From TrEMBL:
Residues 4-175 form the MoaB/Mog domain. SMART domains: MoCF_biosynth. The lineage of its organism: Bacteria, Pseudomonadati, Planctomycetota, Planctomycetia, Pirellulales. SUPFAM superfamilies: CinA-like, Molybdenum cofactor biosynthesis proteins. It comes from Lacipirellula parvula. Belongs to the CinA family. Signal peptide: none annotated. It holds the Pfam family CinA_KH. This is CinA-like protein.
Length: 422
């Protein structure tokens, strides 16, 4: 069973309002085992709406639309569905009575314009709306070559739409499905290589048509592998995904650092909490992101002993009393090492992270960011490739520092004064 979600409204198509309904409905449909094939967004134009519904009715089994069920002239969903299905509009007296009573309970007189909310495409049934004046629409459209297409239209107001989905639409779709089927995802988070390199490491897993499927997405240099399986229940999906997940972990090793909502700072915090240890940070290029993320990762039992933001060599020299900094460049390894050892010693933490300034050359092989990790036994002096898009440079650098700490805590070797994992 395939579905299309249609979001209607000029405020959405022009970017004035964020469409959260489509995301929410996509998640709910997937939970029911329905494959969401299309997301469509259209404005308040009758011809465009009719065309969109006609197209959807022809290519999917379930259409769920939000918006356009109000009483004003730009609310066109009822009329659009009727035209797309080739039927007329009829007034439902029971719905009209309910709308009038709702106004009465609120101590108001119903404007006559609201009567159009009781108009339905011929053959449709009303979806009750306990929280608003706009009933939803349920219509099953016959098709010559296959089963009917089920069309559900709901208000755009989430507080009205969501209860209507739970009480009426979801049970109707589940009943139409007949055989029990759910779709579940498992997300494995990775850091340390580029997207194409990681895909090359897992050639068979990413191929199209594989079951379970594995998708790959990237956000700020974090790669997410999404395993998707369908089955009769959650346990069946989990069992189907487990061999694929095991293969990913076996091949990628420490590149795969966590799952679902895990970020690198979450993993670092758990490792430090389990070891009853703390970390202090002195950072320049990362602009305080490392400290900020670590502080948020463990708000109750903080593993962040302290943090400093470096803004100049003069400031760092005054803090550390290190005269050699006078002849250093802001991006030198000496800056990162001095900062890491000083902040660890001064704060009394088990580990210190020092991040130097970005190099003056931002692209090419010479663009290296120096990060040092000072620990109880030694200080590791690391260099990382910093050539990347300017929009993610700072976030990527912060993740490089957090990933370096993670590997140190896991007792993994890191190549020093050379390019370490990204």
């Amino acid at each position: 069973m395939r579905a299309e979600i249609i979001a209607i409204g000029d405020e959405i198509i022009t970017g004035q309002r964020l469409d959260t309904n489509t995301q929410w409905l996509a998640e709910r449909l997937t939970e029911l085992g329905v494959d969401v094939a299309f997301h469509t967004t259209i404005g308040d134009n009758l011809a465009d709406n009719v065309e969109a519904f006609k197209l959807a009715m022809g290519r999917v089994d379930v259409v769920v639309a939000t918006g356009g069920l109000g009483p004003t002239a730009d609310d066109l969903t009822r009329e659009s569905i009727a035209a797309a299905a080739g039927v007329g509009l009829v007034r439902d007296e029971a719905s009209l009575t309910y709308i009038r009573q709702l106004f009465d309970r609120r101590g108001r007189t119903m404007p006559e314009r609201n009567a159009v909310q009781a108009d339905f495409p011929e053959g449709a049934t009303a979806i009750p709306n306990e929280h608003g004046t706009a009933p939803g629409v349920e219509l099953h459209v016959d098709r010559a070559d296959r089963l009917p297409c089920s069309v559900f239209a709901l208000p755009g107001v989430p507080a009205e739409m969501r209860p209507m989905w739970e009480q009426t639409v979801a049970p109707a779709i589940a009943s139409a499905r007949g055989e029990a089927r759910v779709i579940r995802h498992r997300r494995i988070k990775c850091f340390g290589v580029g997207e194409s390199q990681l895909e090359a490491m897992l050639p068979d897993l990413i191929r199209r048509g594989r079951e379970p499927s594995v998708g790959i997405t990237v956000s700020d240099a974090t790669i997410t592998l999404r395993i998707t399986a369908a089955g009769p229940d959650d346990d069946a999906c989990r069992r189907a995904m487990e061999p694929t997940a095991a293969t990913i972990y076996e091949i990628l090793g420490t590149i795969a650092y966590g799952e679902e909502e895990d970020e690198l700072e979450d993993v670092d915090s758990r490792l430090l909490v389990n070891r009853h240890q703390t970390v202090a940070v002195a950072e320049w290029a990362t602009g305080g992101l490392v400290s900020e993320w670590l502080a948020k990762a463990a708000p109750v039992e903080s593993v962040l002993a302290g943090g400093f933001l470096i803004g100049s060599l003069k400031q760092l020299e005054q803090l550390t009393g290190e005269p050699a900094l006078r002849d250093a460049a802001p991006s030198d390894s000496l800056v990162a090492t001095t900062a890491a050892e000083w902040v660890r010693r001064t704060i009394g933490a088990d580990y210190g992270i020092g991040v130097a300034a970005f190099p003056p050359i931002q692209n090419g092989g010479a663009a290296k960011l120096c990060i040092s990790i000072a620990g109880p036994d030694r200080t590791r002096r690391l260099q990382f490739d910093s050539a990347t898009h300017p929009a993610i440079r700072q976030a990527r650098a912060a993740k490089q520092a957090l990933n370096a700490l993670r590997l140190v805590l896991l007792a993994r070797d890191l190549p020093e004064e050379t390019q370490a994992p990204l």
